[in-house]
Amino acid sequence: MKHALIDPDRLFPADPTTRSIARTLYKQVAGLPIISPHGHTQAGWFARNEPFPDPATLFVQPDHYVFRMLYSQGLSLDELGIGQPKIAEPRKVWRIFASHYYLFRGTPTRMWLDFAFSTLFGMEKRLSAETADEYFDAISAKLKTPEYLPRALYDRFNIGALATTDSPLDSLADHQAVRDSGWKAKIVPTFRPDPVVDADYAGFTDNIAKLGEQTGEDTASWTGYLAALRKARQRFIAMGCTATDHGHPTAQTADLSKNEASALFAKIVSGTSNAAEQELFRAQMLTEMAAMSLEDGLTMQIHPGALRNHNRRVYKKYGRDVGADIPSPTNFVHAMRPLLDRFGNEAKLTIILFTLDETVYSRELAPLAGHYPSLRLGPSWWFHDSPEGMMRFREQVTETAGFYNTVGFNDDTRAFLSIPARHDVARRVDCAFLARLVAEHRLDESEAVEVARELTNGLVKKAYKL
Amino acid sequence: MKHALIDPDRLFPADPTTRSIARTLYKQVAGLPIISPHGHTQAGWFARNEPFPDPATLFVQPDHYVFRMLYSQGLSLDELGIGQPKIAEPRKVWRIFASHYYLFRGTPTRMWLDFAFSTLFGMEKRLSAETADEYFDAISAKLKTPEYLPRALYDRFNIGALATTDSPLDSLADHQAVRDSGWKAKIVPTFRPDPVVDADYAGFTDNIAKLGEQTGEDTASWTGYLAALRKARQRFIAMGCTATDHGHPTAQTADLSKNEASALFAKIVSGTSNAAEQELFRAQMLTEMAAMSLEDGLTMQIHPGALRNHNRRVYKKYGRDVGADIPSPTNFVHAMRPLLDRFGNEAKLTIILFTLDETVYSRELAPLAGHYPSLRLGPSWWFHDSPEGMMRFREQVTETAGFYNTVGFNDDTRAFLSIPARHDVARRVDCAFLARLVAEHRLDESEAVEVARELTNGLVKKAYKL
Amino acid sequence: MKHALIDPDRLFPADPTTRSIARTLYKQVAGLPIISPHGHTQAGWFARNEPFPDPATLFVQPDHYVFRMLYSQGLSLDELGIGQPKIAEPRKVWRIFASHYYLFRGTPTRMWLDFAFSTLFGMEKRLSAETADEYFDAISAKLKTPEYLPRALYDRFNIGALATTDSPLDSLADHQAVRDSGWKAKIVPTFRPDPVVDADYAGFTDNIAKLGEQTGEDTASWTGYLAALRKARQRFIAMGCTATDHGHPTAQTADLSKNEASALFAKIVSGTSNAAEQELFRAQMLTEMAAMSLEDGLTMQIHPGALRNHNRRVYKKYGRDVGADIPSPTNFVHAMRPLLDRFGNEAKLTIILFTLDETVYSRELAPLAGHYPSLRLGPSWWFHDSPEGMMRFREQVTETAGFYNTVGFNDDTRAFLSIPARHDVARRVDCAFLARLVAEHRLDESEAVEVARELTNGLVKKAYKL
Fold first, then answer.
1. Do residue C160 and residue C93 come from a single domain?
2. Quick check: is A31 in a domain?
3. From the centroid of its chain, how far is CA C109?
4. In a shared domain, residues A93 and A56
5. Residue C388 is part of a domain; what is its CATH number?
6. B15 to chain C: which residues are within 8 Å by CB?
7. Range of the domain at B446
8. Which DSSP letter does residue A157 get?
9. What is the pLDDT of residues A443-463, one digit of tens each?
10. Is residue C462 packed enough to be buried (19+ CB in 10 Å), middle (13-18) or exposed (0-12)?
11. B122 and B237 together in one domain
């Protein structure tokens, strides 16, 4: 099918030999099911299966990639309808977005959106002030049809597995509802314990208490708290969960004695801990989580390095996740050592490391993953989840860690409609990288085909046990 | 016009498709006027409009890019005539330079010089020991003709605006003289307050006193000092100034209370401050300057990260700016926070950030500029003001910050004759980058034309209000 | 000669114009003798000239690049026969390796091995579980023939000079035996004093005592210790040594007064020093070594930044050099200053800097080497000794430091049979980089030929005085 806004050769190198190889490789993986082991879609969408609302609510307001760029150029978050109450009229928001769509030139957001506009909604002219209403009307109309309901799109996207990200306190009722509905789809939760291990998290003390209630354990004591976490993990596992996720400010780990850990926990739950103690507690909890993963088999994801809510005024007015998270320098080689001293050599444990600091790709992550049996490298992440970012990841990691210590692609998205676009970009960039290796006689084409399939499907299934 | 030393396709990718697109884009911007918003040329050249002296004095002795490379290979600064008194005979210096010209292979200096030799002086053979005298004679002869006087070259270079960099204590008499001469050229000063805000700057205490005399304010008091700076800025603005520039060792900012700042200032002017207090004072002054910029509209440039005068012996003997400034790791994400907490959300304020530490492009600068309305990204700078450096800047910044949070090119040069060469390199690299996006179907060619024009002229005029 | 496993155009860019230039350049350097100024081959191999044992002992067990990848994917070091006693049967080890050879796709190890398999042993099918025995038998048979004895291979490899790396305590008897044998080969030792300057080195105190015995100096005193080092250097120089090598955890240098240094040394040899004192002593010793180099002319190599034995369990069981060394962030700009303050301006001193932290290429190393007459840049090293790593080195270093502040290639290998493959990769990548400069009209082809020859042979001979 021909699409006006996107070219079938997009993201392939211009050199004809390399492009031709990239095309051949891409053909082998283009039709493979999407395995999405890490993201922020909502199980509730599929449980309820209600129509998505208008284009502004769908494409602009939930996507921090979109509104942070608009904000950086002087538009106010209020006029974009960000925050509560959402008073902005959707069509007006859409027109503002459309008339500033040129700002996204050269960004992955532009590629993701054009893909959706083109393949899902059949748009043929670039979004702009002139085409704003045409887009709004066409998309609005289609969203009301059965073919655009969440479950229909899930099937249309050829998704083989989809993991959400959930608090240990989540009832998982939406996941249960999807299961009960009889609809055949592999949608599983991910255990993200930040709200109950990070004392700096809003509502931490209440969360600990609630965890106790939910599990019937005494979470005021260190042993009761650990037992509660074990039970919560089992509850997630029963719902198909195969992985945990840890979004700490740093990659620091610790390996305290039981007495030290118990005393630290007492300080933490007393509400009198300082920043250093909270950091040490998060560090210790990564090691505790690794211990539990060794028991129950959950794959562990560590996503460190985001300085959350850098913009205090925006955070105060609009809350979390409004685009003001900024990466910061991240050390793994010293920080991960306490955990690795205990569990690094466990081949049955899988710990996937992510970074927002690209300097560690070749210096720390590839050497660590190229040695420790427990370690794997997550794909380029967040700001680096882009054609150039993905290419830098492969170029800087492969020579030391190889392909087989990586785990395929994460879309990590809150924007359900961007999932096929994001996976398509990842597949194309991987094929472009492999095509260069083939064109430069560093890999046979038949090997590249095998690797392309592994990067698309094989490695992710293995690492995440999906 | 054909030039023997430079090829019309230089810096365009070799792949024919991409090269052809790059050519098309370049044609659209090659003839645009040069906007040079940041550099170290001297207003006095244009005020006096006297001939430039011989080739050695013009090309070798003022250009730290040139003599640092020669020095690194064992030539002495004395034999190059660097420092006082300049006893070296120009022709001898030129011969040394010519016979070591091969050292510059692969460097931007070589490209800049060949451009000038070829387009300005019509040289057809590469500079070498053999051609040294031929060059020296040809260039010397031309420099004496009216066509090579500063104003004639300014016009020939098609410069639309040129900013110098000036101390707050500068009388700006040369700028006044240019204005008074009736010659139509847009040459404006830039307000660089380092000599009066950096207590580590040579002559700081005297500078403060002189600032007081010039402005009629009591610069012994914190409020008088701030008032004096305000007046000095107004004096610059009257002469066309649109921007300030801040060359601090780090990007640290601070936001002290009025009492704290006042006490710190007292310590600083007393001459008893330690290094930490001086750093805190510079940090505070960045925030004060931002406050004044919000009042008077001057765009703010922050150029941190140079460890000045790394080579103590060379500094002791030859003074500042003799090639021994070395970049050092630079943090923005924590350092800029105090200033951003106060002014980061001001869309009317423009703060342009530069770095000598390329690791911050994708990790810190692009995410910050892709969020805060007040922030823009300066081009790749100094050591990175080169084809590979410029390409890394675009590749690492664009996907997160887009093109529209950048501000075009700065030549930042003390070498007037290199200005067209430097801008030409920047235009070519930008076109090469855009051509790849087009060839890989990430941008339409018509969009790339628009962006190329913005990168060349539009964004710089807007950011610097020129 | 045609080789099934390796293509004559490998590592050349796919664009036909650039590839054609790369081929032309490569032809000029492909046949030049190998100068190997830094590595870990054993003089004893050439002294004794005995056959290399079986393929597993030759290719798998001594090569940490090989077994760290296998270990990272869950294979045990015991089944690979790593460590003592080597109980694993070589053919079994080889089969394991062969069946996991696909793990090395995209790595330089794969390129090096295929080169040896193909050019030395005439293998025509890729190594795999299916071809494992065929390889084992063919290689085993050839290793027993005279053409595969160490000296025959040295000659066949066209090695012009080969430096080993040796403790100051080494008798150099093997080097003497090579000389005494009458065989014409330039095999020289390198003076690596880590065992007697690093108090954290196993056996440090005994080493100091042994140094005293060997030299007849009182190494319990600071002056005696320095005198002993001078004598040991002279002993190495008598055996052809032209360089020292320093593998410190950091690049820290110091310049203590004689009294301070003497007191620090007393603390160090007393065995009561703490980590900070040991670091300061290593730092001081770099400066002392530079002072001695200025006297005796030995070129100095500084290889900082490896965190040795990161995996404590593996270290405890298997000892040093078992693949668990991990790079860590490395600072040069502040760390090298004490040494540079004293000796940086000495054009007769050559200090070659290496890094495992690529972020310093453009930020610190190129600016430092592009200024200080004593400094040169070593090639990309260890984890970065790879096609992408070498290309990043040239791209990030050349524009500031030029080509002539670099020193050619180091193979740094323990795997003798990989030497031709490694040098071939380096020559090809350099030619590919130069070809791009030529294709983009940044360098004339005739200049590129000159530079290619310098990068292959000229600069290394000059920097290492070989």
1. no
2. no
3. 15
4. yes
5. 3.20.20.140
6. 15
7. 155-464
8. T
9. 999 999 999 999 999 999 999
10. middle
11. no
Chain B positions touching A74 (Cβ under 8 A) are 347, 373
Strand partners, B36: B162
Q: How far apart, in Å, are the Cα atoms of C329 and each of A286, A397, B331, C177, C227?
A: 23, 17, 15, 41, 34
Q: Which residues of B touch A325 (CB under 8 A)?
A: 367
d(CA C272, CA C278): 10
**Which residues of B, range 293-332, sit inside 8 Å of A by Cβ?**
331
Q: A112, A129, A148: which is the final residue of a domain?
A: A148
Touching partners of B (3+ C-beta pairs < 8 Å): A, C
Q: Is B384 on the interface with C (CB under 8 A)?
A: yes
Number of domains in chain C: 2
Q: Which of residues 126-165 of A touch B (CB under 8 A)?
A: 126
Q: Is A382 on the interface with B (CB under 8 A)?
A: no
Do A87 and A204 belong together in one domain? no
pLDDT at residue number C86: 65
C73 vs A17, A341, A404: nearest CB:
A404
Cβ <8 Å between C371 and B111: no
Exposure string for C363-398, b = 16+ CB within 10 A, e = fewer: bbbbbbbbbbbbbbbbbbbbbbbbbbbbbbbbbbbb
Residue of C7, C310, C388 lying closest to A399 (CB–CB) = C388
As a dihedral over the C-alpha atoms of residue B341, residue B347, residue B348, residue B353, rounded to 10 degrees, the angle is 70
Chain C touching partners, 3 or more CB pairs below 8 A: A, B
pLDDT averaged over 10-residue windows placed end to end, chain A, 466 residues: 87 98 98 97 97 94 94 95 78 97 98 97 97 98 98 98 98 98 96 97 95 98 98 98 97 98 97 96 98 98 96 91 90 98 97 98 98 98 97 98 98 95 98 98 98 98 98
- Pick B442's closest partner by Cβ from A111, A313, A359: A111
CA pair distance A423, A385, nearest whole angstrom: 10
On whether both C161 and C246 belong to a single domain, the answer is yes
**Whether pTM exceeds 0.80:** yes
Cross-strand pairs, A299: A243
Two structure tokens written together for B451: 């962006």
From A78's Cα to the closest Cα of chain B, the distance in A is 13
Q: Rg of the Cα trace of chain A?
A: 22
Asked if the C-beta of C401 comes within 8 angstroms of chain B's C-beta atoms, the answer is yes
A123 and A185 part of one domain: no
Residue B419: name the closest of B42, B98, B94 by CA: B42
Alpha-carbon gap: A232 to the closest alpha carbon of chain C (Å): 30
8-state DSSP, B166: B
Query: A142 and A112, same structural domain?
Result: yes
Question: pLDDT truncated to tens, each residue of chain C (466 aa)?
Answer: 567 899 999 999 999 999 999 999 999 999 999 999 999 999 999 999 999 999 999 999 989 999 999 999 999 999 999 876 567 899 999 999 999 999 999 999 999 999 999 999 999 999 999 999 999 999 999 999 999 999 999 999 999 999 999 999 999 999 999 999 999 999 999 999 999 999 999 899 999 999 999 999 999 999 999 999 999 999 999 999 999 999 999 999 999 999 999 999 999 999 999 999 999 999 999 999 999 999 999 999 999 999 999 999 999 999 888 878 999 999 999 999 999 999 999 999 999 999 999 999 999 999 999 999 999 999 999 999 999 999 999 999 999 999 999 999 999 999 999 999 999 999 999 999 999 999 999 999 999 999 999 999 999 999 999 9
Residues of chain C with Cβ-Cβ distance to B311 below 8 Å are 340, 344-345, 371-372
CATH code for the domain of C113: 1.10.2020.10
Same domain, yes or no: B294 and B363: yes
**Minimum CA–CA partner of B429 in chain C:** C440
